[in-house]
Amino acid sequence: MREKIPTNKLESLALYIFVGTIIGARLGHCLFYDPIYYLSHPVEMLLPIQIRDGAIKFTGYQGLASHGGAIGVLLSIILYSKKNKVAIWFILDKISLAVPLTGAFIRFGVIIYE
Predict the structure, then answer these.
(1) Number of domains in the chain
(2) Is residue 83 part of a domain?
């Protein structure tokens, strides 16, 4: 059974998922691995800078957590489905094949990195 889904709907869903993944992965790293530091320095959660003694230092993004990314994806799908009035189960059904493949690539990347 083929479904006629407009391309612009798929593009906006992909954008929601991409942004949700990046923000969720970063916040997941900050809140799961070093919450005391990042809650006292909230700007450093999303901006790649460090502020010490009035000086600003560029640090780059130093951590992403895959489980935070997964939470970000779920929240972005919920947000997308509410905004566009699409059933959550419909979206989850359509991306179900990509999820285990993405998880495998993430784990493979972690193995190579370490």
Answers:
(1) 1
(2) yes
